[in-house]
Amino acid sequence: MESSATESLRLPSLMPPTNSILVIKDKLNLVVEILAFLFVILPYYLLLTVYRKLYPPPEKSLQTKNVIVTGAGHGLGRGLALRLAREGAKVAVVDVDGISAAQTARDIVETGGVARSYVTNVAKIEEIRKLHVNVVKDLGSVDLLINNAGLLYTASIKDSSEAEIRTVIDVNLLSHFWIAQEFLTEMKSRNSGHIVAISSMAAIASVANGSAYSASKWGVCGFMEVLRAELNQNPKNNVKTTTILPYFINTSEQYVNRWDIRLPPLSIDEVVEEIVTAVKREEVLLSIPRHMYYTSLIKLLPVDIGNYLFSILYCKLKPPSEEEKLTDRTHNLTSEHIKNKQLKE
After folding, report:
1. What angle do helix axes 175-190 and 211-231 make, rounded to 10 degrees?
2. Which one from 213, 293, 308, 314 is the annotated catalytic residue?
3. Which residues of 84-114 are buried (b: 16+ CB within 10 A; e: fewer)?
4. Dihedral sign (CA 154, 157, 159, 162)
5. pLDDT value at position 334?
6. What is the per-residue pLDDT for 343?
7. What is the phi/psi pair of residue 317, to 5°?
8. What integer pLDDT is reported at residue 79 of this predicted model?
9. Gap between the Cα atoms of 216 and 64, Å rounded
10. N- or C-end of the chain: fewer Cβ atoms within 10 A?
C-alpha cells in the first residue's frame, strides 16, 4: 500500500542530455560586439550624465492621479503619502495598522487633500484582492502603485525563528508578486500605470545580522528587472517601473540606536523628495544617495580588497535585546500576530 502511494507521487524522469554539440555562436561577431560595446559605453555614459544634469527629463504631473502607498501608516510610507497628496494625487493609504493608516489619511484630508485608509496585510493575496476592489470603488483605477511596506528585521541566522523569516519574506518580497498580479491586468489593458518598488542598498551590499531582510531586498530588485523585461516585450508598452534603493533612513529612534554605521542615515524628507522626483521623471532605477549605486562595483575588486573597503564604510546591525523585542514592530509581526491584530481592529 505504501509502495503504491509512493509510486503515484513519483515525478517523471528528465530527458537524457542532448547529443547535439553545444558551442559559442558566432564567436567572431561576439568578440567584435563586446569590443564595440566597451569602446562606446564610457564616453556615452559620461556624456549622458552631464546632459541629464544640464537637461533633466521632463516631469509628469501627478495631479488627480490615483495612488496606492503600502506601509503608509508610518515612516517612509507616511512621508510619501503626505508628499504625493501635496502633488494633488488621491492617495489610498494602506497599512496593516489601521490606526496609523487612518491618521495618515486624516492628516491629508485636513490639509485639503483626498485620501482613504485601508487595513491590509500585503502578504495575504485575498486581502490584496479586496484592497483592489475597494480602491477602485472609492477612488478609481490605480495610476501609481508604490510597494513600500516592509519589515526591517535584524537577527543572526541562527537566532532567526522560522515564523520571523517567513513573515519578512512574505511582506518584503512575496507581496510584490501578489500586488503586481492583481493590479497589472488593468494597467496593461489601459496601457498606463506606474509600479514603484522600495528595495534597499542592502540589495547591493549586505550586512551581518540582516539575512532575511537583505535576501528579500535582493529579490525585489530581481523581480522588478524581470517585470520590466516582461512589460517591454510589448514595443508600445507604457506601464512604467521604478526601483528605489535607499541607504539607512532615520525612520525610528529604536532602529537608529541599534545601528553602528560610518555614514549618517538619511532623513525621511530627503528620501521622499528623491523618490517623488524619480517617479515624475519615470526613472527605472535610483539609489539614494545616487552615488552609492557605484558601491556595487566593489564586487569587481579582489575579495580581500572589497572586504577592506567595506570595513572602512562599515555598517553594523545590533539585534534587539529581549526587552526591545517586546516593543519592536518587526519581531512581533509574525503571520499569526498580524492575523490576530487585524481581527481585533
Report:
1. 20
2. 213
3. bbebebbbbbbbbbbebbbbbbebbeeeebb
4. positive
5. 56
6. 38
7. -110, 125
8. 97
9. 33
10. N
CA quadruple 167, 172, 176, 177: dihedral positive or negative?
negative
149 DSSP β-pair partners: none
On the question of pLDDT at 90 being above 50, the answer is yes
**Cα–chain-centroid distance for residue 98?**
22
Counting Cα atoms < 13 Å in the Cβ hemisphere of 206 gives 15
Mean pLDDT of 20-36: 83
Indicate the helix (H) or strand (E) that contains 240: strand 239-246
Q: What share of the chain is helix, strand, coil (3-state, %, to 5)?
A: 55, 15, 30
Catalytic (active site) residue 213:
yes
Q: How many H helices and E strands in the chain? A: 14, 9
The residue whose grid cell reads 490615483 is 66
- The 3 state secondary structure assigned to 79-115 is HHHHHHHHCCCEEEEEECCHHHHHHHHHHHHHCCCEE
200 DSSP 8-state letter: -
Q: In the predicted model, is pLDDT for residue 261 greater than 90?
A: no
Which cell numbers in the block locate residue 266?
A: 538619511
pTM for this entry = 0.84
Of 28 and 131, the one with more pLDDT: 131
Say what percent of the chain tops pLDDT 90: 57
